[in-house]
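Morning!

As promised:
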Amino acid sequence: MIRLSSAEGGAAEVAADEAIPTDELREGLLESLRAELGAAVVGSHIRPGDDLWVRVTADAWRTAGEVVRSILGCTYFDFLSAIDWLPSPFGRDMDSQEDLIISGAEPREPPAMTTGYAGGDTRLQVFARVANLDQHYGVTLKVDVADDDPSLLTWVPVYAGANWHEREAWEMYGITFVGHPHLVHMYLPGDFEGNPMRKDFPLLARRVKPWPGIVDVEPMPGGTDDEGEGEGE
Amino acid sequence: MTAVTDRDQLAALAARANDARANIEFEDDGMTLNIGPQHPATHGTLRIVAKIDGEQVVSAEPIAGYMHRGYEKLTEVRTYPQVTTLINRIDWLGSFANEVPFILAAEKLMGIEAPPRAQHIRTILFELSRLANISLFLGDLAIQLGGLTLGFYSFRDREFVLNQIEAVTGGRFHPNFDRIGGLKDDLPKGWIAETKVAMQKMRAFCDEADDLLFGNEIFQKRTRGIGVIPAEVAKSYGLSGPNARGSGIDWDLRRDNCPPGLAYDKVDWKVWTHPDGDAFARSWIRLQETREASKIVDQLLDTIPSGPIMAKVPRIIKVPEGEAWVATENPLGEMGYYIVSKGDLVPFRVKIRSASFNNVSIVPWVCRGVYIPDVITILASLYFILGDIDR
């Protein structure tokens, strides 16, 4: 990790923080979650003093919501959304493999799929964040959803605010929330086909007109070339 | 001036509102009333489809999406510095405040911290955008309820703040001024003294709003006991900011979960809460917050440290692999960015958690059983920006 700071004192403080990699509060939260959910907790990640990630199985998604609400006191619903971990088959400039073949270039090998904190086994993952406003901590819950049948039990009976967030995740990622009272389009027109936030859905504006800003890296004001780090990519 | 101040009377009003909500029965052949998408009462293209029975609303369903711009998808093809240009346009009344949580999240992943001077000026600009945002709310609320005077006053006095933002950033609406590791530029000469004068003018505006609006009997009668949201409901819908504090939730991200990179620990101010949870409480909280914001700016102006405004940052910004969530207390409520980085020039996924999306999602709940004119009051008191819902 690059650690750069204008002040030397700042760097020393960072080093001191790293010497204490434990976080009793979040370790305790994780323990109580494990006690309640048992084997349903399949992954976790703690950034000490900052945040907690917990991954649960799809069967236990609703139960996990009820547990964090009642046992951990996270009554505040922050957001719910999804991630598509598939590496984009289009580059940043949104050129598809077909275009490369037509222009005579070698088709690129897509990079291997990797997942983030707390791991993951499937391409699509739903994540939600809830918080305890009295003790000021939050928990990010993650859950894998099956690739062939992306569906989960809805969280609306647990957190009423999940209603709109699940509608958004449904239309953007195609994840069905079983038991949702009103699963209709949030933003898109009613007859829209496809799930725009999935990585294999091309950004059509870029396909039509290439983005001019792609090579545009201006030098820092007052800076000279030798100040730059990470160049030569 | 006879204000509705008696607690018992207020409780009775709230109970009556709740009774009306509980006693309503669905009538399938009820009339459907379309409010919006182009309607002055909705300030923006939010459409409310209300099913009404007589004068009472049986169900009100907001239809969003008339301004959806797909920022979450667009961030996946823009470099980190380019993303700030997009997210400026989420809440366009307090643009600078949109940039801050994103920059802080990127700084968190990179392990960079802005120098103290930059943190200070960042916080000042953050509070100035709060003033620019909430002062318009006070005028807008008055206009919705038929008091045009304060509307004009708020547009007039808001200029003082916008001028100060423009003097630093060059932009009145879209500053695009925050950078990973600091700020684009330093303050111009004479700016501190000018801003102090502007803050005095804002406080005078608050006093004027207090007199004209909050002391007005008609205003009180139209807002007291209207749109009552209990604290537990507010939490489960994820209401944040003044809407949550108006329901008695004592929670402010500036005080409670302030991310590193902002200078709120160096100032002293009060987080106001109101126990009633009605439209009046939410509006009153915003009036107090305008005052407090001007005080925060005053304190910060006195203590700006000297030093650089930019940390040493690589010229080509690559954010190391990881995930980060940073939320700040924006004018409209909690705004946060969940960034997933794959160590590339562009973010892999950015989840934008905007305040208005959650704040407006409570409309079907809170509008059930109210009278039609009160829908306008409730929408105005929840205070949303369309760009903040649709992103």
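Residues 116-144 of chain B form the longest helix (29 residues).

Hope this helps with the figure draft.
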